[in-house]
Amino acid sequence: MGLQDKYDRKDIRRLNAVNVLNQLRINRELSRANIAAKLGLTRATVSNIVSELIAAGLLLEAEYLEGQSGRPGLLLQLNPNFGAMIALEIDVDRVVIMLTNFKQVRLWRQSVAMPKGASVDTGLGLAEGLLSRALKIAKDKALRCLGIGVAWAGLVNRNSGELAYGPTSRWENVPLRQVWEDKYGLPVYVENEAHAAAIGMYHFNNDAEKNDIVYLSLGVGLGAGVIIDGNLLRGRQGYAGQVGHVSHSPNGHPCSCGKTGCWITEVGAVAILRELSNANVSVNHDASDEVAWIDQVCEMAEAGDEAVLSTLANIGQHLGEGIARLVETFNPSSVIVGGRLGKVIKYASPSIAEVLKNRPMHAMGESVELTVSCSEEDSLVGCLASVFDAAMKNPVFDSVS
Ligand SMILES: [Zn+2]
User: Fold this and answer.
1) Are 246 and 264 in contact (CB under 8 A)?
2) 87, 142, 249, 375: which has the fewest C-beta neighbours closer than 10 Å?
3) What per-residue confidence (pLDDT) applies to 247?
4) Whole-angstrom Cα distance, residue 347 to residue 298?
5) Cα(197) to centroid of ligand 1, in Å?
6) Which residues surround ligand 1, an ion (CB under 5 A)?
7) CATH of domain 3-78
8) Spatial separation of the C-alpha atoms in residues 391 and 268, rounded to whole Å
9) Would you state the pLDDT for residue 396?
10) How many whole angstroms from 276 Cα to the centroid of ligand 1?
11) What is the pLDDT of residues 43-94, one digit of tens each?
12) What percent of the chain shows pLDDT beyond 70?
């Protein structure tokens, strides 16, 4: 069965339009000829789609002078003023918001501390305060808001958008998508933070060979976002990727989940603090702040403190062993370690790489690219990608197709 039989013409036009927009999201500016070449479409097909997208307000074109000949050409780009997008991360110790235009240029960012053990009402109250401010800024700039993407440190039900269970916050069954869609009258996309980060990494990846990504979000907890053949593995309820609680060292340390020897007990924030203390490294650890010590440890590592570096190398060994299991399970092209501890894990990456070189069977470890992300914004980027994707697919194209 050919593509034409499987989809009707409208579907194909819509798919082509989404692909054109994606090319412009990744490459920023392209000519019609560039787009045709990248997508394997004819110039005529691309010109038709582009005309419709310009008419719908999604694209802009600007004249430029080509090379030394000085011939005028036209470059296309996403129209930044097509709308605004909001990304919101609700973590155990903070709420972060980012407002961007349709070109994903940042217009405003703000972060507020989440009190330790905050209730659902307190936490969502903080988030709603930030959301009101973001919506006001968008309105003042005459940008309609296209949607709100939310990343949360816990299990998110894929069908209902409920915050199903937060292992650290202990929040349970919060119908966030429903509540906020009713309150704000906007589409709301809720994702687990590791899933969101994986979505972000995948969408901004410009390498067609990299369709298989494992993103590990490491902080107080450890979750994975796994993308295989370009699809996020969500599982039946959407809870897939809870790799922090797989058994790692059976006679190891007790875990917050009630079991003993989970992987997180050797690699997470609690483990790093415990091992630093065992190595007689003193860290100003304020019990009311789960992650305030991170910068201090990074400074000591950067200054070449041997006890810190060797502690982090041991943590890297444990991380590497768990990553090797994931590499054998999923055979990814890239493994990215990020989240709040990314900055610290940077100093453990040589020992992770060493394990990956030797452990996984039949060269799977050698072909995998290991990256440590220190950005702390990978989940937010994924939130924006969710809003952008949805805005492109529906209902924007009702006027286009
Ligand atoms: Zn556990």
Assistant:
1) no
2) 142
3) 93
4) 8
5) 22
6) 245, 255, 257, 259, 262
7) 1.10.10.10
8) 36
9) 47
10) 21
11) 999 999 999 899 888 999 887 766 666 666 789 999 999 999 999 999 988 9
12) 92
Q: Where along the chain do its domains lie?
A: 3-78, 81-198+380-398, 206-376
Question: Residue 188 belongs to what H/E stretch?
Answer: strand 188-192
Report how far Cα 303 is from the mean position of its chain's Cα atoms: 30
| Top-ranked range on mean pLDDT: pick from 44-53, 80-89, 202-211, 276-285 | 80-89
Q: pLDDT tens for residues 97-109?
A: 999 999 999 999 9
* Residue 184 · residue 131 · CB < 8 Å: yes
Return the CATH architecture of domain 206-376. 2-Layer Sandwich (3.30)
> What's the confidence (pLDDT) of residue 1?
44
Q: Is 214:335 a contact under the CB 8 Å cutoff?
A: yes
- The amino acid that residue 116 corresponds to is K
What is d(CA 356, CA 63) in angstroms, rounded to the nearest whole number? 49
CATH topology match: 81-198+380-398 vs 206-376? yes
CATH number belonging to domain 81-198+380-398: 3.30.420.40
Distance 249 CA to ligand 1 centre (A): 11
